[in-house]
Structures are given as C-alpha cells and as structure tokens.
C-alpha cells in the first residue's frame, strides 16, 4: 500500500494486500477523519443527509434527528478522549 497527499486529499493505493488488510486500513483512515472533523480540524459531510459543514462536525443534527445528534456527540466525546489528541 502507498499513500500520497494530493492538495489535502489523501489517496491510498493498495498493492497486493488482502481484502481484510485493505478494510482495516480504510477503517483506520475513516476513524481518523471522523476524529479530526469532530475536533473541527477540517470539514465534515453528514452521511445521512449529505449536508456539508466546512467548519467541522456540528454539535447536533441540523435537521433535529436525535439519533444523528447522539452519534455526533459520541464521536465528539471519543475525539477528545486521552490518546486521541491531534498530536
């Protein structure tokens, strides 16, 4: 696997790795992306409504869906736990 950063867009290329290894890498990158968005380090797009938030993950669902708000708040708490700091 190789990774490159193309103007802020991270591109991953998987070469001769198993599907399980590829999924594990993609899972890690998605968790890292979510934590950075929860801390407001970059924009975020809601996977349910596809609304974009350039300033990062909001504190609650724009549409008032409690389930989404619960997930957002969980992700924000996880992003601020010890060991998940951006450094």
At a glance:
By secondary structure, the chain is an alpha+beta fold. It has helices at 19-38, 66-80, and strands spanning 2-6, 9-13, 44-45, 52-53.
Can you tag this structure with a few keywords?
87 residues, alpha+beta, 2 helices, globular, two-stranded antiparallel ribbon
Order of strands in the sheet with most strands: 1-2
Number of domains: 1
Compute the CA-based radius of gyration: 15 Å
Q: Provide the β-strand percentage band.
A: 15-25%
Cα separation of the termini:
24 Å
In one word, what is the shape? globular
Task: Give, in order, the helices and strands.
Answer: EEHEEH
Number of strands: 4
Number of helices: 2
Find the structural class using helix and strand composition: alpha+beta
Draw up the topology in text.
Blueprint: E1 2-6, E2 9-13, H1 19-38, E3 44-45, E4 52-53, H2 66-80
Task: Tell me what the structure shows.
It is a single chain. The chain has one domain. Helix content is about 40%, strand content about 15%. It contains 2 helices and 4 strands. The mean pLDDT is about 80. Helix 1 crosses helix 2. The two termini are about 25 Å apart. The chain is of the alpha+beta class. The longest helix has 20 residues. The strands form 2 sheets. Strands 1-2 form a two-stranded antiparallel sheet.
């Amino acid at each position: 696997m190789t990774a490159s950063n193309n103007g802020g867009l991270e591109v991953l290329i998987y070469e001769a790795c198993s599907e399980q290894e590829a999924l594990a890498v993609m899972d890690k990158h998605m968790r890292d992306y979510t934590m950075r968005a929860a801390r407001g380090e970059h924009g975020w797009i809601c996977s349910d409504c596809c609304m974009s938030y350039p300033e990062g993950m909001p504190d609650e669902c724009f549409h008032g869906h409690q389930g989404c708000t619960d997930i957002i708040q969980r992700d924000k708490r996880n992003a601020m736990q010890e060991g998940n700091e951006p450094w």
